[in-house]
Design goal:
Pathway: Amino-acid biosynthesis; L-histidine biosynthesis; L-histidine from 5-phospho-alpha-D-ribose 1-diphosphate: step 8/9. Helices cover 35% and strands 16% of the residues. The protein contains 8 helices and 13 strands. The longest helix is centred in the first third of the chain and has 21 residues.
Length: 303
C-alpha cells in the first residue's frame, strides 16, 4: 500500500518521533511506497507556530536541508524493504513563500522528487491550528463565502505555479465545518471545480487523506461532494495518511475502503521514482495499481 504525505517530530515541531521511526513503522505495517514530505521553511518570524518559539528563520531553513539529507539516507538504507519518496509540502502565506520555493527547488533539484501542494493559511492566519484561529481567518475576509473563495484562489496559484504531483487535502478550508456543502456557495464551488480541472489537465493525483478522520470528520479529505466532481472528470486518486509521527502511520486506513467503494472508485494511483524527470523537472511518475485495490491484503491489518 501507499502514502504520499507524512511528517516527523524531527523536522516538524507539531509532530512526534524521528523520521527513521516513521519509516520503520511504515515498513512494519507493510507499506510498499511511502512519501516523506516535510513542510518547506517559512520566511517571516511572524509565521512561526507557538511550538517553534526560539527558532530562527535560518534554523528553519537548515532544518529542511537536514531533512533532505536524512530522507535520502533512509531511502538508500531501507531500499530493500520499502520504496521511499523524498518530497515536500508547500506553504503559501504571502508571495514570499512562492518566490522562496522557486529558489529552493532550483537549489535542490534532483533531491526533491515530488511536491504535495497544500495551503494552510489565509491572510497570514493558519486555518488548521485551532478553531479560534480558523474563525479569525474567516472573519478576516468578511465571512464564509469570501473565505472559501480566497482559499481556492490561493490553492489555484500553488497549482498553477508549481504543478504539484499530489494535491494536498483539497478541502482543508472546511476543517472545522466538515458538514459544509459547497453547493451552498456557488462562487467557491466554481473555483474548486476550476482547480480540479486544472490539476487533472496537468496530471496531478488527488490525495484521499485519512487525517480528516482523526479530526472529527466522518470521511477523509476530500468530502463526498468534491470527490464526485473529481471522479466525474476522470481525476486520479492516491492515498495519504498525513502522519505526524510513527503513531499516526496508516492511522484510519481501515476506514478508507468503505468510503472509496461507496463513491464508486475503480482505480487508485501512486507515485514511483523515475530516473527521467517529469515535465516539471522532478523524478517521479504516476502509476496505476495493477491489483484490485479493494482486495489488497494491507486492508486486513490496517487500523
Amino acid at each position: 500500500m501507499h502514502s504520499h504525505h507524512s511528517h516527523s517530530g524531527q523536522f516538524c515541531k507539531h509532530a512526534t518521533g524521528t523520521l527513521e521511526e516513521v519509516v520503520l513503522e511504515a515498513i512494519r505495517q507493510g507499506f510498499e511506497v511511502y512519501g516523506l514530505s516535510e513542510h518547506v521553511p517559512r520566511y517571516r518570524q511572524i509565521d512561526l507556530y507557538p511550538e517553534e518559539e526560539g527558532l530562527t528563520l535560518s534554523q528553519l531553513s537548515s532544518q529542511f536541508e537536514h531533512f533532505l539529507v536524512e530522507a535520502h539516507r533512509l531511502k538508500a538504507l531501507y531500499a530493500p524493504q520499502i520504496r521511499l519518496l523524498v518530497g515536500l509540502e508547500t506553504e503559501f502565506i504571502t508571495a514570499l513563500d512562492l518566490e522562496s520555493l522557486d529558489a529552493l527547488l532550483q537549489k535542490h533539484q534532483g533531491q526533491v522528487e515530488y511536491i504535495v501542494g497544500s495551503v494552510h493559511h489565509l491572510n497570514g492566519t493558519p486555518i488548521d491550528f485551532d478553531r479560534q484561529t480558523f474563525e479569525k481567518a474567516v472573519e478576516s475576509v468578511d465571512g464564509s463565502s469570501a473565505f472559501l473563495c480566497a482559499y481556492f484562489d490561493a490553492q489555484y496559484e500553488v497549482l498553477r505555479r508549481f504543478h504539484p504531483e499530489v494535491v494536498g487535502h483539497l478541502d482543508l478550508c472546511r476543517l472545522y465545518t466538515p458538514t459544509l456543502q459547497f453547493s451552498q456557495f456557488p462562487d467557491a464551488l466554481e473555483r474548486v471545480k476550476r482547480n480540479i480541472l486544472y490539476a487533472i489537465d496537468y496530471g496531478a493525483l488527488f490525495e484521499i487523506n485519512a487525517a480528516a478522520l482523526r479530526k472529527n470528520w466522518e470521511t477523509p479529505y476530500p468530502g463526498v461532494d468534491l470527490l464526485q466532481i473529481i471522479l466525474e472528470h476522470g481525476g486520479r486518486l492516491a492515498l495519504s495518511d498525513d502522519s505526524h509521527g510513527p503513531q499516526a502511520v496508516g492511522l484510519n486506513y481501515g476506514h478508507l475502503p468503505g468510503y472509496l467503494e461507496r463513491a464508486g472508485v475503480a482505480d487508485l494511483w501512486f507515485l514511483e521514482y523515475s530516473e527521467t524527470p517529469n515535465t516539471y523537472g522532478r523524478n517521479v511518475r504516476a502509476v496505476k495499481m495493477e491489483q484490485n485495490w479493494a482486495t489488497h491484503p494491507f486492508w486486513s491489518q490496517s487500523s
